[in-house]
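Thread: quick sanity check before group meeting

JM: Hey all, I'm pulling together slides for Thursday and realized we never actually wrote out the predicted structure for the chain we discussed last week. Dropping the sequence here so it's in one place. If anyone has concerns about the input, flag it before I start.
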Amino acid sequence: METKIDARGMACPKPVILTKKAMDNGRKGEEICVLVDNTIAVENLRKLAASQKADYKFRKKGEKEYEVILTVQQETDEAKVQETVELENCSIKTGKKTVVVLSSDKMGEGEEKLGKILIKGFVYALTQLEQLPSAVLFYNSGAFLSCEDSPVLEDLKLLEEEGVEICTCGTCLEFYGLKEKLAVGNVVNMYQIVQTQAQADLILKP
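JM (edit): ok, ran it. Output follows.
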């Protein structure tokens, strides 16, 4: 049996996340065939295969086309259920309160275009975490991300539906003329921003 995933044109980490989901739902011996268009994705899939103890092979099909095949080596469904129970009994989920802080509409320094691609991938990756953050805070130019025409708007709405607080600085919205364009979450003041961070067990800031 073979599952095919066409991940060409997808930014990191989508190819890995889609493949991991297919592996989790697959049966032992099933092949997951993934098409990607860059060597970084190929390498990331190799690392995924190693972490899952899956067989891995790839071949170059064209100038920017690679086929990666991972063969699922997981246990049977019954064993997976038993493993889940054991993990739950060991309290793997810590229940830590994580707050994500986004103070820019791009990630890191350097090329603006690259930074905006990275922030889009970062927000998408948040939606795939087993334990979602309790809140995402937006201030300074990060306020653009929670407003109309934001490239991450759908992912933020998904997070909100799952109970994550989406909070944007009111002063920042007013400064950038975005007050009427907020498309997800609530408007907060600086005291609320500080209080939310002070009460967090872990703060993530890309």
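AS: nice. The helical segments are 14-25, 39-51, 77-89, 112-127, 153-161, 170-175, 190-198. Residues 76-94 have pLDDT under 50 and may be disordered.
JM: adding both to the slides.
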